[in-house]
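[Meeting: bench + compute handoff]

Bench side (C.D.) handed over the final construct sequence. Compute side (W.E.) agreed to return the predicted structure before the next meeting so the bench team could plan truncations. Sequence as handed over:
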Amino acid sequence: MRITFEELQAQFVRILKKYTFADDKAQLCARLFAQNTLDGVHSHGLNRFPTFIQYIEKGYVNVGAEVTKQESFGSWERWNGHLGPGNLNAYSSMNRAIELAKTYGMSCVALNNTNHWMRGGTYGWQAAEAGCISICFTNTLPNMPPWGGTENRIGNNPLVIAVPRKEGHLVLDTAMSLYSYGKMDVYKRKNQPLPFDGGFDSAGNLSKDAEAILEAKRPLPIGYWKGSGLSMMLDMLAALLSKGNAVNDIGQLESEYGLSQVFICFDADRANTPFIEQVTGELISYIKSSAPMKEGEEVYYPGERTLLTRQENLEKGISVDEEIWNKLLQM
């Protein structure tokens, strides 16, 4: 079934206000969840919203919390999220990183004691819209085995890189697992196999069965040992820069909260906007000139599919899982 963006956002606002969100916070939080769904990322939009509410009910998310600055080193600042709503904390932190980048040319805002930021790409798009090149990443609970191991000791630590561009921003949003848990849940609900092996089943065999991988809790790191190593380094940087929890600390908690995140920005104007347009345009043209693997298909740059999905959903309405939509209406 399809619904409008406005209808989806209104339902989110209705529920958030029941949980004592102030009107401005309810509107922004709802918009962020709705935009994720609009862009086709249901796993961190509509599908994730009931879990977000459960975290509020369990006391993991402090609805009224405000981020506060702990330390400042010029263009690098440390902030405390006080376990506030993860998407609001991340949005505020990226805004601050943008402000600092406009002042100093580049910036780093490191955030500790926060919650799941939902779709990391949200903050890449946010920075690009403000005219900034950005890099941001988060750690998570231990939800993936390190390469060579069988027990979860590292996180799938999403990494986002964004570059502003008039004809369509470039935004890479990638977890350190080949498929995020949310994406695998989408395939499980549809009873469809993953396009490629996404992890190991309980018997230790590589599998395309999302349900079997989720049950075993053994997703495959991107690039095998390379993704495993990158996960470790992103986690370490997030903890060191923010003075927050690393994956081993988060793993001692009863659920996923108290995360560490980093938001880095560069002012595109100082990097010379015409030069950025020239380089990105030439590079994209060169990449898209590659012959596609299958006839009728196309080579896409990071963020291009998102723009196409967004436009389609604005024109036709957002495609949603009817079961989850009805659950939302009853909340």
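W.E. noted at the follow-up: The longest strand covers residues 106-114. C.D. will use this when planning the next construct.
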